[in-house]
Amino acid sequence: MKFKRVAVVSDIHANIHALKVFMDYLNARPEIEIVLNLGDFLQLGPNPTEVFDIVVEDKRFVNILGNNEIELIEEAGKDESLERIKHMEWTKNAIGEHRLKKLRDVPKSKAIDLYGKKFMMVHTVTEQYIDLKELEECEYVLMGHTHQQVFGSYWKERRIMNPGSIGHTPNGLVNFAVIEICGEMINFVFKNISYNKELLHNDLLKFNVPGAQRIIKHLITPGEL
């Protein structure tokens, strides 16, 4: 009996250059037919339209919203900075109303059965977006948000796996995970691949992304923080 494989990604953050590296990995492995996307695929990066079209239109992707998508379709909090508000407006203008409409149809969490194993997809461990009855039937919680690759923590007595961040990790690293399932056996394998962070740097400046300098310091020149 062969292992079935599922890719898990999170926190792409509108970084098409990092996403393309993952897509090259995925397209070279036709045995991976499902990609679980844990949200925050928009905002912070310079390429929201390109990322949206891949993530939403590619039938291999199963998507949920992260806080960065939720704030695009709900009223912004009163404590948001002017820079953050400008970035949200820039992103909404970039993707257009027809994509925002599609975004509203994406769930905030999702329970999914894959090859006999049940997983709860959440962006972060908060009860307000989760059906707790569905959670009771799941063995594992798949969570993003922290940008850190982690397995083994517990939430609601369920094991948590975080694949890390595709597009918002310093030093040009793409983080994701592959789940291998074979009957009762299950493996969680973390992956790390480099991408050309200078392409991200150039796009942040080329497209006049609000908050670009802050993002550059965090992702491209972290030693200057």
Topology:
Elements (H helix, E strand, L loop, with lengths): L3 E6 L6 H12 L4 E6 L10 H10 L3 E3 L3 H7 L8 H22 L5 E6 L2 E6 L9 H5 L3 E4 L5 E7 L2 E6 L9 E10 L2 E10 L2 H10 L5 H8 L6
Parallel strand pairs: 1-2, 2-3, 5-6, 6-8
Antiparallel strand pairs: 1-9, 4-5, 7-8, 9-10
Helix pairs in contact: 2-4, 3-4, 6-7
Strand order of the largest sheet: 3-2-1-9-10
The CATH homologous superfamily is named: Metallo-dependent phosphatases
CATH class descriptor name: Alpha Beta
Query: Uncertain regions: pLDDT < 50 for 5+ in a row?
Result: none
Number of domains: 1
Strand segment tally:
10
Question: N-to-C SSE series?
Answer: EHEHEHHEEHEEEEEHH
The overall pLDDT, averaged over residues, is 93
The CATH architecture is 4-Layer Sandwich
Predict the CATH topology.
Purple Acid Phosphatase, chain A, domain 2
End-to-end C-alpha gap: 50 Å
Number of helices: 7
Helical coverage, percent range: 25-40%
- Residue fraction in strands: 25-35%
What spatial form do the alpha-carbon principal axes imply? globular
In terms of quaternary structure, the protein is: single chain
The Rg value, from CA coordinates, equals: 17 Å
User: What would you call the structural class?
Assistant: alpha/beta
Strand count, sense and barrel status of the largest sheet are: 5 strands, mixed
